[in-house]
Amino acid sequence: MVLAHLSAKAFDFHSIKSEFDLHDAFSADVLAEARSATDRHASDRRDRTDIPFVTIDPPGSMDLDQAVHIEKLAAGYLLHYAIADVGAFVAPEGALDMEARQRGQTFYLPDGSIPLHPRVMSEGSASLLPGESRPAALWRIELDEAGEPVSWKVTRETVRSVARFDYARVQADFEQGTPHTSIAALGEFGALRAQSAIRRGAIDLTLPEQDVVKNGKSWHIALQARTDVDAWNADVSLLTGMCAARTMLDAGVGLLRTLPAASDEAVETLKYTAAILGIGWPEGASAGAVLASLPRDAPTTLALMTRATTLLRGADYAAFDGNVPERIEHSGIAAPYAHVTAPLRRLSDRFATEICLAVGAGVDIPDWVRRALPDLPAAMRRSDSTASKVDRACIDLTEAVILHERVGERFSAVVLRGAEGKRPAEVFVESPIVMGKCNGAPPEGERVTVTLTAADMETRRIEFGYESDADAQRSVASTK
């Protein structure tokens, strides 16, 4: 759904890059390493180009981390998941490695990305591009008929992708009953993994995302709802991350992504909000089960999902070597979990993958990995925080530019979250697509009329105001 656009000349995303000190360019020594990098483990690999992998990514993506092949067996499923073997190209503690540790991850802005690694490598020699033989960390995961993993291992192999797909194409193929044979079982797999998530007590927030998208010479704000294929593809990565976490925990060394359990107060607040919105909450049902049962396109779903984000606060990274940390679980996934599936775009994945590869091969974990482990949580916290702020700044700027001449106009909105103490309410305006703060006391979960009271392009601030019928009548009476 696209409901707002303006000339690209009205936007200046360069100022956001400057504000957050993001630089596309790399130093000469880093570029030299990336250009000359070759597979340091070429002699250790088996050739698995016989497996017809495919990739599923956003349109136009060139930094392809993952390729998938899944088949249904007589009793279960066999998943092969190839991950770009970035560790084979990056010299430990060299100039490229040190630069990646400073950056932490790839940052995405509407007018382009600020990559973690030079594009000659991340979009070239290390990317799982179709038709190219590439070094990979290949996960082989066997699952039973219920979609639960029964065995897994990761090894260094050579793979080849036979096709590059985007989410919309794969979704259309499934809807037409013509999915590629390499992923024909993906829908069944996804459904089973969704049931597994509910059994574990996982919480999946399928909030649509605001995106700033370029269309020709204009920019627009789009609301991107998550498709079935998005969820299924995410399930492949989540499963792999769960297997990686268990591998590292068994070895006593690793890097986990953690999230504390939601407080009883947060769950009770969510139940109260559900009651206000008229959403049933069966006795004994988990928050994840209730959220998973909601219709995707209902305004009340968006309101409850937004409120449910309070259940998933406090995400962190936990590095360990010898002593397993007290908190090992990611409560949103309801299991231990680790990032291993996006090493071209996220620093932590390369190190966690190296640990899993060493464990799988029965060899010592490299000393350079162990030396880096204590510093990785802080590096990832820093880059995650910056990425979140950059995303928000780009959306805020786009909203301010689109709306700056419409201050004083009234808009139809859904109240995503009511006011609490000093925190104002949050509303969702459908035309143009905007999520913003709202002063007053609009009733949570209801459709109301709000007035745009501020749209400042310099500060990127959007603000609405709400008056109830009673407030409006009192205001009119006071002027007489």
Number of helices: 14
Most strands sheet:
6 strands, mixed
Query: Roughly what fraction of the amino acids lie in strands?
Result: 25-35%
Kindly name the structural category. alpha+beta
Dominant shape: globular
Terminus-to-terminus distance: 44 Å
Helix content: 25-40%
Radius of gyration: 24 Å
Account of the 3D structure:
- This protein has 480 residues and is of the alpha+beta class.
- The protein has 14 helices and 20 strands.
- Strand 6 and strand 7 (112-114) form a beta hairpin.
- Helix 6 (186-200) packs across helix 7 (228-251) and helix 8 (264-277) runs antiparallel to helix 10 (299-308).
- It is globular and about 70 Å long.
- It starts with a strand and ends with a helix.
What's the SSE blueprint?
Layout (H helix, E strand, L loop, with lengths): L1 E6 L6 H6 L8 H9 L9 E2 L5 E5 L8 E8 L2 E9 L10 H9 L3 E3 L2 E3 L4 H7 L7 E11 L5 E18 H9 L10 H15 L8 E7 L2 E7 L3 H24 L1 E6 L5 H14 L9 H6 L6 H10 L7 E6 L7 E2 L4 E2 L10 H15 L5 H6 L3 H28 L6 E8 L7 E6 L2 E7 L7 E10 L4 E5 L3 H11 L1
Parallel strand pairs: 2-9, 3-9, 18-20
Antiparallel strand pairs: 1-11, 4-5, 5-8, 6-7, 8-9, 10-11, 12-13, 14-15, 16-17, 16-19, 17-18, 19-20
Helix pairs in contact: 6-7, 7-11, 8-10
Quick synopsis:
The chain is built from 14 helices and 20 strands. With 480 residues, it is α+β, with helices and mostly antiparallel strands.
